[in-house]
Design a protein that fits this description.
Layout (H helix, E strand, L loop, with lengths): L15 E5 L4 H5 L2 H10 L4 E7 L14 E5 L5 H14 L3 E4 L4 H9 L4 E5 L10 E3 L10 H10 L18 H13 L6 E6 L11 H12 L4 E6 L5 H11 L4 E2 L6 H10 L2 E5 L2 H7 L5 E5 L4 H4 L6 E5 L18 H4 L3 H9 L3
Parallel strand pairs: 1-2, 1-4, 2-3, 4-5, 5-6, 7-8, 7-10, 8-9, 10-11, 11-12
Length: 348
Amino acid sequence: MSRKDRPRAKPSSPRKILLIRLRRIGDIIMTTPAIAALKRALPQASLTYVVEESYRPLVEGNPDIDKVVLIPPHQGIFSFLNFIRRVRREKYDIVIDFHGGPRASRIAWLSRAGLKVGYELKHKRFMYDVRVPRHREGAPVHGVENHLNLVKALGIEVLPVPPLVLPAARIEEREKIDKFWLQNNLQEKTVVILHIGAGNEYRDWGEENLASLALKLAGRPGTRVVLAGASQDEARAERLIRMSNIPLLSLVGKINLIELRELIGRASLFAGPDSGPMHVAAATSTPIVALFGPTIPVHFGPWKAEATLVERDLDCRPCRQKQCITKDFRCLRGITPSDVFSACLRYL
């Protein structure tokens, strides 16, 4: 049968739904309200989430997801074709592509699902049966709203909008943060989590700025600063501790994403640039001070979180992060430590 003639699944009675979002931290977290809305509307349907292996902790154990399928970040043609065969054997009624990237769109297109839902993307119209615009003319759309719009396209009501959801911490993950808290006598302290990493040079606030902010924060009586970041940020953490010449704590490269959520959830404040950990923080009740440079909050701001957003009003924002036309990354590095410290004081 041709794609046009193939029978469509009825949104009111699907048995199996495939969800695709391969990367990255913040983008995956921002799909969770849409997934919760989908499960609430179709509790009888089994939801399978396809994600790259390194992002497993963000979805495995999510109460709204019945099955997680892992794929490597880089796949050869034979590995990919074997994966497609596995997908086809499951006979999904609906596939929702939250990603839209080259591999995700091919998975959706080749899945043989009864109904394929995705974004209105140039050169990919033929891959989906239902297409949703990612942008409204003159009105920016937040990433969470984009994902919710894919669910709405099935005729599903999403009100009230669910919050961001991360899997519950395992016992050993909670105990690891408990131990860190007790060993460093943080029970009666004002704890600030400072994220020092950056996805690329466009989102890098700079070590001198980070060190200056850490010094200002740690100089407050009763305040302890805990550095957070990935394993590739360990050398930076060591340099910041030396530059600051104050007793900073560091868990950089030592905890997973769920342990990071546990850590942030116990703190008084999270501070850092627009990043995956910022979205982890948005899944807690801890206030956020977020720095925005090449990106803008209307697209990627911390969803429904108590937050102060620090940014500069420049004509070159937002940008595609391919080339800095001013060559000095002024959108982010022009934000001063004093600007960020003043924002932090609102919550301390």
